[in-house]
Amino acid sequence: MITVYKPQTLIELAIAESVLEANDIPYYVHNAGFGGLYPGMQLELLNVRRIMVPPSAVDAAKEVLALYVADDPGISFNRERSFWHILRMLAEAACGPWIVPRVGAVKRGAA
Length: 111
Prior knowledge:
The protein is built from 3 helices and 3 strands; from the N terminus they run βαββαα. The chain has 111 residues and is α+β, with helices and mostly antiparallel strands. It is elongated and about 55 Å long. The termini are far apart.
């Protein structure tokens, strides 16, 4: 499976899925369920959604998605980073070690 599109919003994901479905192009959404389970930081391999297609359908999928999911102001959002967005990302990065539990951590007194 090859990644052909990384939607930024659920609306973009829904449009891309419907376009691929309408053109009978097989696809798979990586992190479809888990990606929206918890709000917060978007970590590339943990919760970022990606639309993947088989190698034989890559060209068709890219062509169809380029037609329908273009940078149209009606369906996309402003991708610029505002002051508040940068501040929020810094706060999430600072709080990250406290939010994400360490794998294999043993609580005191558990033994």
